[in-house]
Design brief:
660 residues; 4 domains; alpha/beta; 27 strands; single chain
């Protein structure tokens, strides 16, 4: 039986460096060799492969550099030994939901998500802390990130307060960049090939953030042509020569070539333009017969399509009739021909348009002899770099949050209407949305809102540091008081969870027929469930006895199960089943992909019936791929019981048997 130790690759998050080397070896086998410390990349061979002049470590090169960039890059590549502990009591619809809300330092959480969600996220939206010179939220300890997190959130004795990142510190931009860089590096690996990342930012770090993103995602994957970006208009704040009346949203793709053009929902699958039915009458196209399907929304009424084109009650303007919008109850076929060119010649000399939801679209015009149809070349309308002003401002977001909570709890969050608009055209049904600076939970709120609006089934993963709220801080006091009122810890993460609950209720009230996912599973970052060998030099005998149990005694069976999911690359919402076999609780995860028994005291007499029961259940499940069986290493009365059980399983084809 293969034993999993604390430092085993199966007990830590994905090893990004090892994966990078594997990909290099696949492309250039001669590039990878053996060095004093194991596998290494031969720099001389690299120069031969790409040319001496293309390999440089010079400081005089184009790009954004700052003190600590190398260390920040190493930090992103260092695996995490942490885990995520499930919290069903703090969740909503735990058994059925596919949404996640994770409390923890997002750097560690992003590392832990790599195995399960690498290449699966369609859209990442983040609104990171702006570098305004106030308290800095995410200082990273390069030696022990988990310990740093526990200290930062005051979960251990002697927890430290967050330091200030003022311009006087001399590291004003450096600290912020060191915080953002490793998180963005890890975020990129989570994106699908056609995935995108949207980042809200203001003027303080806009230029630096663009350069960082160019380096991580590639300038060619920017979705706006430099120096343009998405502009989000504000009411105008901060006195000075000019009142700042905008913020930015940077947009990058994982692979721009794999990303279809965005199309606004006004031109969805039921529109005439998307169907490609409209044609311009011309000498090259002298006649048209067009059938419009039932249910299609058109810029003309059903009556007009059925031939009610004449009559004194109709309105005529310059020989043309304007007909209001409508929806077809049944398919309609119409004809138009070049013979009516004299009647429509005036219209062909110019194009008339009108506004609908802020977009410019073609009108359809009729005359007494027939009808002229016109189709735009591409047939879609793309979002503009200036975001529509009716989507709201930070004031809108504040009012929305106050309406949900019945009190002011947080200043200037993004409005869910802005997020929902972004999601409406950038991700679709079943897509996964990630926000690792969740704040008040606007992204989760917006995902639910947009799903209710278009019938989608988008999922979300939110990550928020359980940052302490200080009741003595005038800006944080309302939120701290609200947490007290709820009887919850004074943290921003509690505000996030409460918003998700209230937003779900509001969405359901406003969309009574909506049956989509309005729940979320809560997980919390913690150190691994596997005990490390930490001997006490003054009492080695007790240390040896303690090491017999390899799992921490203060952790639950569910804690261990979900760490197994994370470290083996399974979705945290994967289906689970539980059965009692030979008096022992056994779990099937992912329809038999993983079978786990963490029961203690398995004797020689129980080993065979337990193994046979697992074999029978495995046949019933009939998983498509290989199955791994995992047991508690200390769960056997003796080595004979362990050996017998493993042998029986392996004889039945369950060859992967491991112990924790």
């Amino acid at each position: 039986m293969d034993r999993i130790g604390a430092n085993d690759a199966r007990a830590v998050s994905a090893d990004v460096i090892a994966e990078n080397i594997r990909q290099l070896k696949t492309l250039f086998p001669e590039l990878v060799t053996e060095g004093p410390a194991g596998i290494a990349v031969n720099e001389d061979v690299l120069k031969q492969l790409v040319g001496d002049q293309t390999v440089t470590d010079s400081e005089e090169k184009y790009g954004l550099n700052w003190h600590g960039k190398r260390a920040a890059r190493r930090l992103a590549l260092t695996p995490s030994t942490g885990t995520l502990r499930p919290c069903p009591d703090e969740s909503a619809d735990w058994d059925t939901t596919q949404n996640l809300m994770i409390e923890g330092d997002n750097l560690e959480v992003l590392k832990l998500l790599q195995k399960s969600y690498s290449g699966k996220v369609k859209l990442i939206y983040i609104d990171p802390p702006y570098n305004t010179g106030k308290d800095f939220v995410y200082p990273d300890n390069f030696q022990d990130s988990i310990k740093n997190y526990l200290n930062l959130t005051e979960q251990v004795e002697g927890g430290k307060k967050i330091g200030s990142n003022t311009e006087a510190s001399g590291r004003y931009h450096t600290d912020w960049l060191n915080m953002m860089y490793p998180r963005l590096r890890l975020a990129r690996d989570l994106l699908r090939d056609d995935g995108i990342i949207l980042i809200s930012i203001n003027d303080y770090e806009f230029a630096n953030l663009r350069e960082v993103c160019n380096g991580i995602f590639g300038e060619e994957n920017s979705l706006t042509e430099a120096p343009t970006t998405l502009i989000w208009q504000q009411s105008g704040t901060t006195a000075g020569h000019y009142a700042s009346a905008h913020e930015y949203i940077l947009a990058y793709a994982r692979n721009e070539a794999a990303l279809p053009f965005f199309s606004l929902s006004d031109y969805g699958e039921n529109s005439a333009i998307a169907h490609g039915a409209l044609k311009k009458i011309s000498r090259a196209n002298p006649a048209s017969e067009i059938t419009f399907p039932a249910g299609m929304e058109c810029e003309a009424t059903e009556a007009a399509f059925e031939g009610e084109i004449g009559g004194s009650e109709k309105e005529y303007i310059s020989g043309r009739m304007i007909v209001k919008a409508g929806k077809l109850a049944s398919p309609v076929t119409i004809k138009a021909g070049w013979a009516m060119r004299n009647q429509i010649l005036e219209w062909l000399e110019g194009e008339e348009t009108f506004d609908t939801k802020g977009q410019r679209v073609k009108r359809f015009f009729f005359n007494r002899e027939g009808i002229l149809w016109y189709e735009k070349e591409r047939g879609t309308v793309h979002p503009k770099t200036i975001i529509p002003s009716d989507l709201g401002t930070t004031k809108t977001g504040s009012d929305e949050l106050e309406s949900l909570f019945g009190a002011h709890v947080m200043s200037f969050p993004k409005p869910s209407s802005l997020m929902a608009w972004l999601f409406s055209y950038s991700c679709n049904n079943e897509d996964l949305v990630l926000d690792f600076f969740a704040g008040s939970g606007t992204t989760g709120h917006a995902v639910m809102t947009q799903n209710a609006a278009d019938g989608g089934n988008r999922r979300y993963i939110l990550v928020q540091l359980p940052e302490r709220l200080d009741p003595d801080n005038i800006d944080q006091k309302p939120a701290a008081d609200f947490c007290d009122k709820l009887g919850k810890p004074r943290t921003i993460a509690e505000i996030t969870k409460e918003r998700l609950r209230r937003a779900a209720k509001k969405v359901k009230e406003e969309n009574s027929l909506f049956s989509g996912d309005l729940g979320f599973r809560v997980f919390k970052l913690a150190s691994t469930n596997i005990r490390e060998w930490d001997p006490n030099p003054e009492n080695v005998s007790d240390s040896l006895l303690d090491s017999v149990e390899h799992l921490k005694t203060d952790r639950t069976e569910d804690d261990i199960l979900y760490e197994l999911l994370l470290k083996r690359g399974l979705d945290l919402c994967v289906p689970m089943e539980t059965r009692v076999i030979a008096g022992k609780t056994v779990h099937s995860i992912g329809a038999g992909t993983l079978i786990v028994c963490l029961a203690p005291g398995i004797s020689r007499d129980e080993a065979e019936p337990l193994a046979q029961g697992i074999i029978a259940w495995h046949k019933e499940l009939a998983p498509a791929g290989d199955t791994t069986c995992v047991f508690r290493d200390s769960g056997f009365v003796d080595d004979v019981a362990k050996t017998n059980l493993a042998a029986i399983l392996q004889q039945a084809g369950l060859e992967h048997v491991e112990s924790l």
